[in-house]
């Protein structure tokens, strides 16, 4: 009180100066506590709403596919699944690579070289989605004894689209090559697709 009275100019009524200093700590504490409580409540409500927008664990598990390619012999292909779609992994022989490289790229409907469809240094590994780009049928040619079509790659039995050994469209109504998904080689024998 002695400090407050010293700041009051001489001759003025000290009442307004005393009103402003009436228990300021308690009011400030109540305001801060109320705002903090409201903030914590807002976070507690908003966080579960935002979190429910994240993909579930089963969806995350399907976002990538890891494939062991160590047992795929040259000339052999396997069928796997990637995001609920068939995936073809083919180990091309030197002869199949030579046939793919011998094609004049400018004559193709969807011009791509084999190098553009494979990873550098892994030209023998062709990884494509097993979905015909015409109407979405699953082409033949990845399984043993299946019809590989006139170009030795894949053949769509629905409307007759034929793909070569690099999965490029060569004949039939399909407008594009078989799609190559994003993939990386984790090692010489393991590939992660997606």
If you had to describe this structure to a student in words, what would you say it looks like?
The chain has 194 residues and is α+β, with helices and mostly antiparallel strands. The chain has 6 helices and 9 strands, in the order H-H-H-H-E-E-E-H-H-E-E-E-E-E-E. The strands form 3 sheets. Strands 1-9-8 form a 3-stranded antiparallel sheet, with no helix packed on it. A 3-stranded antiparallel sheet has the order 2-3-4, with no helix packed on it. Strands 5-6-7 form a 3-stranded antiparallel sheet, with no helix packed on it. Strand 8 and strand 9 (190-193) form a beta hairpin. The longest helix has 28 residues, at 24-51. The radius of gyration is 35 Å and the shape is rod-shaped.
Total strands: the figure is 9
Largest sheet: 3 strands, antiparallel
Q: Determine the structural class based on helices, strands and strand pairing.
A: alpha+beta
Q: Strands of the largest sheet, in order across it?
A: 1-9-8
Give the helix tally. 6
The mean pLDDT is 86
Order of helices and strands: HHHHEEEHHEEEEEE
- Contiguous low-pLDDT stretches (5 residues minimum) are none
Ends apart, CA distance between termini: 73 Å
Task: Tell the overall outline.
Answer: rod-shaped
Radius of gyration: 35 Å
Helix content: 25-40%
Q: Please report which band the strand proportion falls in: under 5%, 5-15%, 15-25%, 25-35%, 35-45% or over 45%.
A: 15-25%
